[in-house]
Structure prediction request, 193 residues.
Amino acid sequence: LKHYDAVWPVPMPVVGPCAVIFDLIFAMKPELTVCVNTIEASLYVTAAQALSKSETDGIIFAATNWLNQEKFKQIQQHSRANYPSISYMMRESPHACLRHFSNSSITCVILQDQGLTDENLEDLIQLWREKLSEDGILVIQHQANRTLLLDKKNTLGEIFFKSEKLTLIRKNNITNATEKLIDFINSENGNNF
Prediction:
């Protein structure tokens, strides 16, 4: 958590996940990141900040149908001013925006579970997992009561990190990118997850 410095108001429940997302994106340096079901801007802005600060040649998208028009414009203006040409927002549902991405094309998907039923969450995990590249990571920012669901449904991929509010699922076998993440998680910084 040595690189994280919040530049956007972060609600208390997502302070920890934001710091983890920042360090994850900073360490992973993904080519394509998609934030799905973005309830508020914290995770998206944090991931864009990390991508920019890591000087990675990557792009980040946020898909949301939750934000009101005023909040959407505020986030869009902040992103355009601070992360030009790397961050983009779509006003679409998690299912509708799937059409914009081909299978095996996304390095990191960040999915927020708020407002989703267990069935919707399972469905979205399966659908977005197909969009992940071979070394892709699916990050689920979830409510505490969802950890049991995610444990039961380990057919969704290999869960290689889990906390009260975050679960990280690897699509396939260990690759260089996931080896770096595992090393990071096991390092002194990773203990702050």
